[in-house]
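Figure 6 in text form: structure in, sequence out.
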């Protein structure tokens, strides 16, 4: 197997927090990889008029300029989501959509929050009774059963593939499938039953899930419905890495350095909680990126010994 590439800092999320973290980490001479797509950030579709120094501009323009800045300082980019993250020895191993496996000395989680729910009848009523928002957390409860995953991005596709090893049958319901060609090929070659071009209209069941009604009139006889919209969310990341969440169980708990409960893992932006504003995300990205680079440098020194002193950018 080809050796995994090791980065000082890998950043999950291509929004304002992630890009700012990439800028600051790169300026400290760290090797940086930024994972994600600009158009998956909520800022991409917004207009900004409450950020210092800006009267009014588009979020797309700000993100595009910010990404160019990060690249100018040496950051590398990969337009993919992380599917799996695990701690292996003193390195964090990250598997992306296309099957790339990378290693990071430090990780910055800046994926934002998934604010969307399906909003269909039965979803709220059957939450915890067959409806789940986390395959990694709850998939094991559905061994030998028939399940459905709802979503058209990497979290849903990856979740469906994960469930194949547990459930009797797995349906993937996607109004539009937007994943990498490699991940799409994996789905096509797997036993996942894809329902593309339709959407759920109701979760059915009395006391527990018994079916998922679709917009084409079909009803899937399933006992579990996993709603996985977007990229990997906070619950999945917390489950795989052991991150501590706040009392609401919606956001990652961090200290003033933007450090999480797991050494080498930092977080910034909306995933750390309100106010869900760009100004806060940028500030936290600055702190997280700087401290992640410092952590990676110290780890590298401990592992490899001192190297020639590098001048540090301010």
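Output sequence:
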């Amino acid at each position: 197997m080809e050796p995994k590439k090791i980065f000082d800092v890998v950043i999950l999320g291509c929004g304002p927090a992630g890009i700012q973290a990439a800028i600051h980490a790169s300026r400290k001479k760290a090797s940086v990889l930024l994972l994600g797509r600009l158009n998956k950030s909520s800022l991409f579709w917004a207009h900004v008029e409450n950020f210092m120094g800006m009267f009014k501009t588009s979020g797309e323009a700000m993100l595009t300029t910010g990404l160019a800045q990060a690249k100018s300082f040496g950051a590398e980019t990969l337009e993919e989501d992380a599917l799996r993250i695990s701690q292996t020895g003193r390195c964090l191993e990250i598997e992306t959509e296309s099957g790339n496996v990378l290693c990071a000395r430090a990780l910055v989680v800046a994926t934002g929050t998934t604010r969307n729910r399906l909003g269909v009848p039965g979803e709220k009523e059957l939450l915890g009774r067959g409806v789940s928002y986390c395959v990694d957390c709850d998939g094991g409860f559905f061994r030998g059963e028939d399940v459905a995953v709802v979503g058209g991005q990497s979290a849903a596709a990856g979740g469906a593939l994960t469930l194949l090893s547990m459930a009797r049958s797995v349906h993937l319901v996607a109004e539009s499938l937007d994943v990498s060609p490699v991940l799409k090929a994996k789905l096509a070659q797997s036993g996942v039953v894809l329902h593309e071009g339709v959407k759920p209209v109701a979760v059915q069941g009395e006391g527990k899930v018994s079916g998922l009604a679709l917009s084409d009139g079909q009803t899937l006889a399933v006992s579990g419905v996993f709603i996985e919209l977007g990229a990997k969310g906070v619950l999945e990341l917390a489950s795989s890495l052991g991150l501590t969440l706040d009392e609401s169980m919606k956001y990652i708990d961090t200290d003033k350095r933007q450090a999480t409960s797991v050494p080498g893992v930092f977080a910034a932006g909306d995933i750390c909680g309100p106010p869900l504003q760009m100004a806060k995300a940028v500030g936290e990205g600055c702190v997280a990126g700087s401290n992640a680079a410092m952590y990676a440098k110290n780890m590298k020194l401990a592992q490899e010994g001192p190297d020639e002193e590098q001048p540090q950018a301010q």
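Caption detail: Confidence is low (pLDDT under 50) at residues 308-314.
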